[in-house]
Amino acid sequence: MTGEGVGRVRLRFLPDGPEVRVPPGVSLFDAASWNGVAIDSTCGGYGTCKKCKVRIVEGELPVSAVDPRAFTPDELRDGWRLACRAQASCDLVIDVPPLQTRPKAATVGVGRQVILRPSVQKRYLELSEPTLQDQASDLERIFAAMDDLELRVGVDVVRTLPQLVRASDWKVTAVVVDDELIGVEAGDTTGRIFGIAFDLGTTTVVATLLDLSTGTPVAVRSILNRQQPYGADVIRRISATMMDPTVLPKLQELAQGTLADLVGEVLEHGEVAPEEVYEVALAGNATMTQLLLGVDPEPVGVAPFIMAASSYPLMRASDFGVTVHPRAHAHVFPALGAYVGGDIVSGLLASGMTRDKRLRLFIDVGTNCEIALGNAERLLTTAAPAGPAFEAAQIRCGMRAADGAVETVRIKDDEVELGVIGDATPLGICGSGLVDAVSELVKSGLLDHSGRFIPDEAAAELHPVLAERLVAIEGERIFVLAWAGEPGDPEGAVYLSQRDVRELQFAKASIATGWALLVEELGVKVADIQQVLLAGSFGSYLSPASAVRIGLVPKLALPRIVAAGNVAGEGAKMILLSAQERAAAAALVHEVEYVELSDRPDFNDLFIDQLAFPA
Amino acid sequence: MTGEGVGRVRLRFLPDGPEVRVPPGVSLFDAASWNGVAIDSTCGGYGTCKKCKVRIVEGELPVSAVDPRAFTPDELRDGWRLACRAQASCDLVIDVPPLQTRPKAATVGVGRQVILRPSVQKRYLELSEPTLQDQASDLERIFAAMDDLELRVGVDVVRTLPQLVRASDWKVTAVVVDDELIGVEAGDTTGRIFGIAFDLGTTTVVATLLDLSTGTPVAVRSILNRQQPYGADVIRRISATMMDPTVLPKLQELAQGTLADLVGEVLEHGEVAPEEVYEVALAGNATMTQLLLGVDPEPVGVAPFIMAASSYPLMRASDFGVTVHPRAHAHVFPALGAYVGGDIVSGLLASGMTRDKRLRLFIDVGTNCEIALGNAERLLTTAAPAGPAFEAAQIRCGMRAADGAVETVRIKDDEVELGVIGDATPLGICGSGLVDAVSELVKSGLLDHSGRFIPDEAAAELHPVLAERLVAIEGERIFVLAWAGEPGDPEGAVYLSQRDVRELQFAKASIATGWALLVEELGVKVADIQQVLLAGSFGSYLSPASAVRIGLVPKLALPRIVAAGNVAGEGAKMILLSAQERAAAAALVHEVEYVELSDRPDFNDLFIDQLAFPA
Description:
Helix content of chain A: 25-40%
Oligomer: homodimer
Radius of gyration of chain A: 28 Å
Strand content of chain A: 25-35%
């Protein structure tokens, strides 16, 4: 992994653009686009539209193979270059002419403005009919009508042409994705261009149907990952494949079935035909990705934790087992490591972690917790094995965040106020409720900083009323959040046990050790962190105050702790809306440094330091 | 179609290479290779090995995107460039350093020396085992071991990696075709690299299994095209698809089955496993190609005669329905027109028509006859609908060239000497026998120059003995070549009828009109033609003397009329042996001018002129 601040090149965009630092080899077009400098383009950066003309005012930039087709020798001498083909390898000052066309933009991710530049485009063509004097083949005729593009095509598209072009009276719409002609449709269908973004989580899977011509989400659906019966977390699913060779194909089928169901639902709700979806994108962790693609995950599960591939090749949507346009392109986010997967790369893209000047901490809380720390200069990432506490899996009264789950807890004077999902009778406690409960008990003093319930006598003295909730069950001390029957009878009550507190301590210590080591590695101080992004659906429900109080996140002013939402899903949308963002995601893998914690000699010391709750 | 001599650029290779003229845009590497100037290269011209260094001594050549990675700024200023990335757009003088490596070569085609540069290559890799300090994915590890290549890969290859690299103790062989990693094999398999060249004829289909590491043919087999029951020629097969929509899939299946049978035979004979074949190439006419690929051929069959595509995209061997390596690449020769197909482009490549300075005439005699005339400066091509005479299909005693077919005829004094295939009793007459018979009868004077048998009395006077063979059957005059029973009893005899002569006259007039029009179009004289190449299996059997005597070919000294053999099959072999030859085949489509005869106002006049036999 590279990506250190050293070795970057400095680019200044005239007349009034910013000065930015980018890794050498990034195209001027991308560097500009990432930094909000708009340069004309209609081809999507493939060197074919020849619109992205810029002039190098200072610095050396070689002439690309395409430049001589766009400029005269005099212009080349004057420094004119196509920005999409210009790879900066030294500091440059670049003059950007005013825009001729105004691109549309959409807001996605963490307040990210994405200029609409989908890799899918449609062209309506009125072809001339062949004659003995003009015997160009059907395919040549279509290519000639789009001579600004240099296109690949598959034989199955050729197979459709003879009948199609004649039946539609030579009036057709070409469907181009990147540099491939994926289809030719009868008549003018330019108004209908769709894509589907998937967030393939271990627990929950989300699909968003996007209108790529406007950037608007047309329909969103989420369902549980059908692989659930094979284990709640990735390690259990990997183990299942290791114990029985028939499980891998089954898990692949279940993942594909989950996506296929979602596709059916969003298409129906959006009133979009399957063949109108020309591109799909998927963010998932390394294990989910390998299982979906039928790649044996065993080496991901055992040390030294090796993926089959960090970046996947371009695929077809059929490789995901979903029925959309038969030649629709499919993209999988690249991964930084076996436990910092494509979902996190997607999240980092959506939150702009590699472009922001502020020092920010990104935490995706879950069974496996992914952490990133840094800014546009340098970004470090790691994975912390938090265990299942946040999914409330090994918590005595733990349950998924569903109706009846306690999701917030406030202890005020002698009262315990519970927020229950669905305003129902409390049935159990979910991850955010667990964090809240522990946090409030620490605040109340009933839990000491080492994580132990204080002795009964001390509790009775400190909080005579609350202390009545502190009882024992099978020899273990518990704090009852909600009685089921008579107060004092723990039968059926929703409670927090001493062991539950220990589970949470281990989980939060693991995470805190992760970011503390990144802080150290980056050579900064906790106080320098300007924002903490809590990613993932769990992150959205977590109370920032509680997260600070238990030491899950660094002690910062609460407005600096922000729930970032489902950033993995946002990133997947972004790469459908903009081919440039897709390139940025691919580049991220080389920009971000992955730090492996499991072989750090100082890990255990730091971990023990972090077990206690902050004073 | 372009390809006129005008607009070409002149390249002079130092120290002692030739001066050549090539179309602008051709890479220096290709121009050199085509003209026998060897330049170092190991990557096959993909700009990755950076070995093909040359220095521009005179003329301007822009710096390519890859050049700055191969040369210092000083070297670039001195004119150093990578030849494979250098596209000449003006006259140049190029200094070529002496070879560091000596390429192997094979002789194929019409005496063509092909430098062995197959697009398939194998690399034996001993990979380092991953550790916690080196967590590169399996795929990254393989790519890193071949960092001179920039490779694509499919997800199905990724799927094989986790198990394969570990089971083979990290010792593997990578299989690369062009810029794609198509497979990874356990251990060292670098010694086994094979390809199969197909010549998909309307009548006969040939497969050649080639050892791509040595250029040697390992096994060759030919069988009849299984589509035969649907018609002897392309027009009948196209008609069959037009009359019944279920016929196209059937014809595709039959073509695929024919190829699959051949593959089975050559692999068995060559003791090669299917998965050791990494690339296949196919030469076929436009109709055969479309039927094989399941593309509706109707527009090829009716005016204005339009193909679905002139150049086909890269395919997999599975698109041909053959079982070799699952990701083996498959190439189809591009076509110049609906009736000057990939088989002819292959033949032109194999015969070096676009590289030879001599003015040459290429004739592939068949139901549809393809003709090319020209040299390296300018090459014209056309198709002449000769009809089925040469396949002896509408000839009264016509039969295929099989046992019992009269294939040569000599009339000497009073004797008729017949050459019969298999030295059997004559059963009928095949194409070459027909040409011979007519030619000998013209020579004897029994047929006059207008193509009419002379009156009985005149015949009896001219050749009293031979005249006895001139009898009538159902009112039509015939010349008996072989009596079945008693001489004088035409029952069961093998003969040539007056109508047969007319059929042949129409066929040969069509062909002669074709080349006569090309002679006119090119502005040359028949006497300027330095060589006539008779291509195809029929061409090999045709007697040059007879072909001249009936006016099928121009009247030239007989040694100048050469049987070129199965040039279509030779071209298919060439593109497997050399990626450069494949590029040359693709370029041919732009270099050769196609002349459509069917709308020429002077066609009928010329045709009538050509009906008679030459004096």
